[in-house]
Amino acid sequence: MTRSDRDASLARAVRLREDGLREEARERLVELSARFPGDAEIAYQTAWVHDALGLEADAVPYYVRALAGSGLGADDRRGALLGLGSTYRTLGRYPEAVATLSGGVTEFPEDNALRTFLAMALYNVGRAHDGMRLLLTVLAATSGDPDLISYRPAIEHYAKDLDAAELNATDLDATGLHAVE
To answer: Which structural domain range is residue 165 located in?
Structure first.
């Protein structure tokens, strides 16, 4: 199979997945993965279709292969890290989820989906405090909800110190809030 044939076969399989024909896409991608075992892009797409079918355990080795190989663009690498971390979490493999998602956040520090899934995995390993702090940080940075925007400084403050019982006068000045009840 030529590179051009490989590209066309992969594009057809991805299109099948996008069109909701996931089982047919899975069959084609598994076949392509067997033919091109070192191809990170094919491995990633094969993992993705397994996840889409609810076959998380079967997706793991493909995600691992995709991340171990070279050739993934930044978006696909980020997607593979998120997919593998989320899949580990779904399978109850929480320490592996934390390790994978932490690596993803290190590599893509501004990615809020990675940070959110990491927060959930942190909760699962008994690190609820760290998970809550991370979620509050993401919420404060991304929410456009007018009810939350006015409290953004306080949320940011408490994200740094969840155990603080109240804001002191210095904190009030820093947050821009005039009263906290």
So the answer is: 143-181
- Asked if residue 155 and residue 104 are part of one domain, the reply reads no
Q: What is the pLDDT of residues 107-132, one digit of tens each?
A: 999 999 999 999 999 999 999 999 99
pLDDT tens digits, residue range 14-52? 999 999 999 999 999 999 999 999 999 999 999 999 999
Asked if residue 101 lies in contact with residue 117, where contact means CB atoms within 8 angstroms, the answer is yes
For the four alpha carbons of 151, 106, 80 and 100, in that order, the dihedral sign comes to: negative
In degrees and rounded to multiples of 5, residue 153 shows phi and psi of -60, -40
- Domain count along the chain: 2
Q: How many CA atoms lie within 13 A of 156 on its CB side?
A: 15
Instruction: Supply the pTM of this predicted model.
Output: 0.86
Q: In 53-127, which residue ranges form alpha helices assigned H by DSSP?
A: 56-68, 74-90, 94-107, 112-124
